[in-house]
Design brief:
mainly alpha, two-stranded antiparallel sheet, 73% helix, 1% strand
Length: 418
Amino acid sequence: MDKLNSLVEKILLPFSAWVNNNKSLQAVSKGFMSILPVTIISSLFYLIANFPITAWTNYLASSGLDRYILIPYNVTMSLFAIYAAFSISYAYAVSENEDGLSSGILSLINFLIVTPYMIDEAGSLTYSFDWLGCKGLFVAMIVAVVTAKVFVLFQKKGWVIRMPEGVPPFVGKSFASLIPGFLMALVFMFVAIIFAKTSFGSVHQLIYTYLQTPLTNIGGSLPGYLFMQVFIQFLWWFGIHGFNVCAGIFMPIYLSIDAARLAGETTNPIGMSLMTVVGQSTVAVCLVMLLFCKSRQLKEIGKVAMPAALFNIGEPVVFGVPNVLNPYMFLPSVIIVPLVTNLFFYLGFVSGIVTPLSGAQVSMQVPVVLYGLVQGNWMVAIWQLIAIPLAMVLYLPFYKMYDKKLLAEEQERESAAA
């Protein structure tokens, strides 16, 4: 334990503090969190249009309703980079106590400037969905952070147009964004011109080729995915919110993979949807405590934590058992259960036993088993049901040892009080 505490003090706590204090990473994380409803709305309409009932899909196709139902999908997921460009820049400016709305709008302008477009013979300007969706996410992130940083710098330094007193605040804010907005638009315009003259054709193609694709290949590989799952649980074991710390790193990668799978461009089962579907472990823990533990502490925690566990909320277990810095819980909660349950689902998908997840985003708080049904995939619901006793078997020996210790302590206290 002393060595582990030393590890926490020297490496993990500084790393966690750096991530939490890094306003760029926090802006990316908060920006993506704020537009999760976009992905969920998109996914719901996609599921309606592609619900696995042949009679239903045939009716939609014959009536022509399918193309109308997919309009919400196309204006959400197919424009996801646009929403990210705005929300990330907004989040960064707000964290610096500056005008988030102006920062977000400037970021959106700059993103569209560097995004390739076409002009037809009639003079109409047309953007392709290619770079406005998840393929353009990394450029959107970079543009958003750069725009927000420059905007905040100009505001802090006072390099803005100040309106006289008596002018409404919203008018003053509009003029305050003129100088940084014009200068940034000029710079991003030159960036677009320069890259248009290269073999890449755009900054999007460069970033996608040399940054987004390699990171997606690493993060989307089975070893990379499993490492991330273990690392998240490792941080949780120290009481650090692993998901929040790592979200800014893995969410862009996993969401882009899910979007590609939703569009039929990949069969890779890894992504945010896989992270969400493997959510039955907390239910398994509560069942172990309720059915097999004898100590009052664990039985009471099982009762209290079960309602939250059904909605994939694990904090009552993490801090109630507690899992935090508990040597009995390190192996099962950090290594064994995350690896086995994730592999269980991964192998089920790649083997074809379970119909792969579509890539549609469903809220993490959708109850276990119901998640699979909402995905329109009853086999996922069955697989989740099987995974619960699997996780229970993995947790049981460790909880029995811990329960034996707690029971002995409770009996000792009762004897001392008698």
